[in-house]
Amino acid sequence: MPTGLAARNGGRLGLATLVAILLLGLGLRLDYAIEGRAPVYDAKAYARIAAHLEAGDGFTAGRKATQPSTNYSPGLPLLVAGIYELTGEVNGQLARIVLAVIASLTVLFTYLLGRRLGGVVAGLIGATAVAVYPALLEYGGMLMSEPLAATLLSAGVLALLWAGDAGGGPRASWWRWLLAGLLLGALSLVRPEYLAVSFLLALLVLLRGVWSWRRSLAQAALVVLGLVVVVAPWTVRNAVTLHRFVPVSTGGGQVLFSGTYLPSGGDPEKVGAEVVERHPELFAPAAVHNLRLEQILARLAHNRYPELEAD
């Protein structure tokens, strides 16, 4: 009978299958990272911000950027700039390789989540899906935040479940709950929409305490503490730089508008053209083709609410 590691993972066959899936996920991500993909506009912006950070120019996308750097979440550029600082050069391929190794952990974390919730077979199915998921692989070939966010999200949820396994009161496992909060904080810096999700997860931790509210309140507080420890320094920086309260970034309004703009039929690529068509008085015909979506929306926002920030 298989024992130990093999016994927990479906025997020797299950363990061998898991290792094969993990190697597949890592190999595909390294292949995309080494070969690279033509970067989309946001990937170019992340790369420019990281290069400026490494050069000591601050969190900026440069003078030619069509939207403020505050529209971008800081997590990925800060990590990439750290890689540049450690290696002593701006090397996009090396940064992608490091990110590919980190992103490959998503496959393992997905397996562990699936095994907890549905058994070994469920874990293997989930890990296989994540290992070959095209969007994560494609974004791994450029500097985009989705692969890193997937790793932090799966790690954060897994850490919450792991913390819930610990017996005794909150003192016995306080560092596990804090670790979960730190991971969710890092996730929020990479993808700002997960800041709201993280607080909802902390609320779920609190609501677990049907029979012991005091214990659950302490556990939820530790999760929130870890979250705040990571996010608060950037929020303070934004308050000093922007003179207003911005927890992570200012790009949420633009994304929300694009994602809910019904005249475009649900296609965000058509939003800019639809806005221009409906508001021709705001745009010079000769200049329309040179405007990006964020510029079009900023002009519309300024026209409607000139006293407010565009986002």
What would you say this structure looks like, in words?
With 311 residues, this protein is mainly α. The chain is 68% helix and 0% strand. The protein is built from 14 helices and no strands. It has helices spanning 5-8, 11-35, 41-55, 75-87, 92-118, 120-131, 134-140, 146-165, 174-190, 194-207, 213-242, 252-259, 271-278, 293-304. Helix 5 (92-118) packs parallel to helix 8 (146-165) and helix 9 packs parallel to helix 11. It is globular, with a radius of gyration of 22 Å. The N and C termini lie far apart (61 Å). The mean pLDDT is 90.
The residue-averaged pLDDT reads: 90
Proportion of residues in extended strands? under 5%
The count of helical stretches stands at 14
Q: Can you write the helix and strand succession as a string?
A: HHHHHHHHHHHHHH
The unreliable regions are none
Largest beta-sheet characterization:
none
Number of strands: 0
| Percentage of residues assigned to helices | 55-70%
Structural class, please?
mainly alpha
